[in-house]
Amino acid sequence: MKTLRPLLLILFFITAHTLAYAQQLEVKKLAKNVWVHTSYNTFKGTTYPSNGLIISTSDGVFLIDKAWGDEQTEQLLAWVKDNLKQPVRMCIVTHAHDDRMGGITVLQKQNIAVLSSAQTAQLAAAQNLGKPDSILQLNQPFSVGEQKLVAFYPGAGHTVDNLVVYLPQQKVLFGGCLVKDAKAIDLGNTADADLSNWPNAIQQVQKEFPKAKLVVPGHGQWSDQVALTHTLYLLQQHAKK
């Protein structure tokens, strides 16, 4: 027993350290001036990743979706400060769910503008998720510094208000939770989904952004346009049930 106890203590320390690390924000380079930030949260005993984007421009940094929860959002801001050494100017939130915009006050307390669609702002108010600072002009290209982007509303899918964001210079499409990752086995959370229109929304994205080379889903690994076709496949399989 004397030998076993130190071993158990060592295993406990390693396990605890690994679990703590798993809850830490991760950042990976995706393209020129673009990084994916991945945060984590636990639901019913299972840990899920959640993706967003960091974009560096000559006019500062902007985010596509915040990290999941206040603590990891603070980690995200610290990463930008330490690694990019630029101020974060704004954050575009892609729909009114907690993984996208819960706790946006962390950003607003640091004078970071939070932008959303009018529909998302209305839904967020009803769910006490906070109040965005400005309303996005949808489906029209605009620029932050030299970086061009378009926030596109394809119609209801995962939620009635889900947006995607396209960066034409890098050919990066942030599909958010409208798009499932290429290895997903189901549609995930469909509590607020419009399952009848979701396929139409994916087809609108395919039609609008055929040049996209990288597609980042809201959860899971990014890939190429196969993520869009796989999402359609999952929707077709779900409709057969």
From TrEMBL:
Gene3D superfamilies attached to this UniProt entry: Ribonuclease Z/Hydroxyacylglutathione hydrolase-like
Q: Which Pfam families does this UniProt record tie to the protein? A: Lactamase_B
- The answer, when asked if Cell division is one of the entry's keywords, is no
Q: Which GO terms describe its molecular function?
A: beta-lactamase activity; zinc ion binding
User: What SUPFAM superfamilies does this protein's entry cite?
Assistant: Metallo-hydrolase/oxidoreductase (SSF56281)
**GO CC field:** periplasmic space
Official protein name in the record: beta-lactamase
